[in-house]
Design goal:
24% of the residues lie in helices and 33% in strands. By secondary structure, it is of the alpha+beta class. The strands form two sheets. It has a five-stranded mixed β-sheet with strand order 3-1-2-4-5. A two-stranded antiparallel sheet has the order 6-7. A hairpin with a 2-residue loop joins strand 4 and strand 5.
């Protein structure tokens, strides 16, 4: 079972080596979702108290709020931001939960997901390949 939380922060950045408007400093409301995998506790019925997960994510994102992300990243694309947030959250163990993925959106409708493992698989093959194989 997955549990997912969402938070956001405001920050500026510019894309290094990119030709276009995004090479200039501009800002976004970065929306971040993080999901963990775990088993629901038999007595509470919960994987984890949402409050604990929200505090973990908020405590991480606050360092980027109203900052220039180029100070923290060599090239702060949504992809690199998602990967770094994942790596930091992964170091902070929460019981037996496993961090599954982090999604970062810098504009509505445009998002990236970072995961170290493909948690959407059926066996060793992705779902689409699994369906095409007739299994």
């Amino acid at each position: 079972m997955y549990v997912q939380i969402e938070d956001s922060f405001e920050a500026a950045h510019h894309l290094v080596g990119y030709e276009g408007k995004c090479s200039r400093v501009h800002g976004h409301r970065w929306v971040v979702k993080a999901a963990w995998i775990g088993d629901a506790d038999k007595s509470s019925g919960m994987i984890c108290d949402f409050k604990i997960l929200k505090e973990r994510l908020r405590n991480l994102l606050i360092r980027f709020d109203h900052q220039d992300l180029n100070y923290y990243f060599n090239d702060p694309t949504a992809e690199y931001v998602a990967e770094e947030i994942f790596r930091i959250l992964k170091t902070e163990k929460i019981g037996s939960l496993i961090l599954a993925y982090v999604v970062v959106a810098e504009t509505p409708g445009c998002q990236v997901m970072f995961s170290e493992k493909d948690y959407t698989c059926c066996g060793d093959r992705p779902k689409a390949e699994h369906a095409l194989a007739g299994s």
